[in-house]
Amino acid sequence: MKAAEAAAGAPSFWSLLRLSSFSSSLACFYVYFSDSLGFSKEGCKKHELYVSFRDLGWQDWIIAPEGYAAYYCEGECAFPLNSYMNATNHAIVQTLVHFINPETVPKPCCAPTQLHGISVLYFDDSSNVILKKYRNMVVRACGCH
């Protein structure tokens, strides 16, 4: 390690470049194999899910909406990860380790990568009408983590 790097406690430009090159190589490797190999299981993606507040038994206190499109994430996060799976670098490495030795770690999981909120009009405990925005209620995108 160079003296200036050690003194600053930060990685050198070349260390960062090598790490960046490693990440790019992994991404290219996965894109190449995902385009050339086919697997029967469906990859990680967003699926339809409508949540009805009546079905949950909440119709007496939720005024609006009656329900909402929540969506959910499901699918395989297996080697090789396709580029559309929004995989983190950690998930890419974990997938490779799992591929080499499945007993070491599980496959990454398909999970939401982007969530949005919804506004709900409801009665509180004192029968006041409240309008509140609830964060992270609607899946917008999924990925492997």
TrEMBL record:
<dbReference type="GO" id="GO:0008083">
    <property type="term" value="F:growth factor activity"/>
</dbReference>
<keyword id="KW-0325">Glycoprotein</keyword>
<keyword id="KW-0732">Signal</keyword>
<dbReference type="InterPro" id="IPR017948">
    <property type="entry name" value="TGFb_CS"/>
</dbReference>
<dbReference type="InterPro" id="IPR029034">
    <property type="entry name" value="Cystine-knot_cytokine"/>
</dbReference>
<keyword id="KW-0202">Cytokine</keyword>
<keyword id="KW-0892">Osteogenesis</keyword>
<dbReference type="GO" id="GO:0005125">
    <property type="term" value="F:cytokine activity"/>
</dbReference>
<dbReference type="GO" id="GO:0001503">
    <property type="term" value="P:ossification"/>
</dbReference>
<dbReference type="InterPro" id="IPR015615">
    <property type="entry name" value="TGF-beta-rel"/>
</dbReference>
<protein>
    <submittedName>
        <fullName>Bone morphogenetic protein 7a</fullName>
    </submittedName>
</protein>
<keyword id="KW-1015">Disulfide bond</keyword>
<feature type="domain" description="TGF-beta family profile">
    <location>
        <begin position="16"/>
        <end position="145"/>
    </location>
</feature>
<dbReference type="Pfam" id="PF00019">
    <property type="entry name" value="TGF_beta"/>
</dbReference>
<keyword id="KW-0964">Secreted</keyword>
<dbReference type="GO" id="GO:0051216">
    <property type="term" value="P:cartilage development"/>
</dbReference>
<dbReference type="InterPro" id="IPR001839">
    <property type="entry name" value="TGF-b_C"/>
</dbReference>
<keyword id="KW-0339">Growth factor</keyword>
<comment type="similarity">
    <text>Belongs to the TGF-beta family.</text>
</comment>
<keyword id="KW-0891">Chondrogenesis</keyword>
<dbReference type="GO" id="GO:0005615">
    <property type="term" value="C:extracellular space"/>
</dbReference>
